[in-house]
Amino acid sequence: MTTLPPLPPCSILLLAGGRGQRMGGQDKGLLPWRGEPLIAHLHRLTRGLTDDLIVSCNRNLELYAPYADRLVHDDCADFPGPLAGIRAGLAAARHDYLLVLPCDVPQLDAALLHAMRDAARQQPDKPLMLRHGEHWEPLLCVIPTALAPAFENAWAHGERSPGKVMRQLAAQALPCPANDPRLANLNTPQLLDRPGEVSE
Q1: Of 11, 30, 33, 114, whose CB is crowded by the most CB atoms within 10 A?
Q2: Can you say whether residue 161 is alpha, beta or left, with left for phi > 0 and alpha for psi between -120 and 50 degrees?
Q3: How does pLDDT run across 165-187, given as a tens digit for each residue?
Q4: Which domains does the chain have, with CATH numbers?
């Protein structure tokens, strides 16, 4: 039996710093799903994969602290968007790769995260994003931390789209099936309250 080489260490960033507009301004990562805050589901999935678990949050820091080794926050006010959180994560990351996940996809599984990390090491100088069909998922990505200056440069020139930055950096795609239930984005109260989205 062939033994695969171990995956390189990675830092993991959980994005929970948004305005929560579709949730009426509520702090989305702390909203309950199946009896636990959304952030708890992602924490349980990722805790064993890294010794550098980072949560990007801009409020309720004391509630997020138990779910992270470190907290980061945007360096400007008024919720400027996920690229600000990614920049903060890249600046804080201790490893050569940063695996980025949003807090509202609690149905991700370990197999998909393993596949992302494995695919990322095939082209270690490029970002990796999930893609289904023609649709990229820029907040489900792996970024070499050596690219942090490129993200800072894009930000300084007014770019606010993580996907555009990564495509400009020749991002590779990890294809996923259309309507993959693991990628279900529970970003409205109706989706959060829907029973039995996917059986665990």
Answers
A1: 11
A2: beta
A3: 999 999 999 999 888 989 988 66
A4: 11-193 (3.90.550.10)
